[in-house]
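Form 7-S
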Amino acid sequence: MNNTSLFNNRILKHVIFWILYWLLWVLLDVMRGIPFLNACSRYLGCFIEIPFYYLHMYYLWPKYIDTKRYGYYFLIFIPLLIFNAYLVLLAEYYIIYPILLEVPKLPEDFFSFTRVLGLTRAILLWFGPATAIKVFRDYYANKINLEKVEKEQKISELNFLKSQMNPHFLFNTLNNLYSLALKGSKRTPEALLQLSNLLSYMLYDGVEDKISLEKEIHHLNDYIELEKLRFGNRLKLQLELMGDFNEVMIPPLIIIPLAENAFKHCALNERGDVEIQISIAIQNNELQISTINPVKNKMEEGKKNGIGVQNLSKRLQIMYPKKHTFKLEEREKKFYADVCIQLS
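Output:
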């Protein structure tokens, strides 16, 4: 019932459009001094052209113009246009002029090819604005649909990247807990509690489109506390927070992949202190995140950046196209990661 109602409404809209469009041309003749009834009669032939318009716009155009088969289009369009002109001339010759306009005698060359060509130009002029409206309307509708599809694809990709991040993070954290358990550390229960807090964050806050920057930093602190259990006194961490974080909203799980990447480069089996610097700042409506960590072990080129950092790069490209920079660089046995996001 709803589909039928929608179809009928569409037909009604088209009928109203053609009546108003026809009246517009009639009024243009009236403005030139032609009596209203005569002008109406003169343009009655236009209603014969309307079926040709629908054949053209709903069959020929999508089948040949949209598929760029222009030769086939003109091969069919031109004969149909001429045939339509002859139909209009027949209506004018037998009905409109002799009966409605009371013109009993018409020129002998009324059906001449010259007159047909003149009428084809008039038909093209009549269809021009209506065709332009249809083309621009379809273009706009297609553009809206394309943007909708692209948006849905981006959402699907973001959800997929998020679903990859959680198992990746859990895998790394379980490895840390395994190391503590092997050492018989009494701090293993504390580490499990930290992991519980982190998983709670991911399950409930990590699925949101935006969260407060303060909450993300709180999540970072939980992660750092867990890493402290793993590294012990060897860890020399410098965390710098600069700027006003109030009411700053960001996508969740933006900072943690960078922190994970920094800790990943610091091998447990190496002696000496592990120095890591993490800086988070809000300046000039920009979120600036940077990490610096030592790189002591040689790693394969393809394994230098983990899944978390790769996913972060893809997420930023989707969420902040042309509004972010992401740089990863290794120099002088140190690894530098810098992210700058323009906040709206």
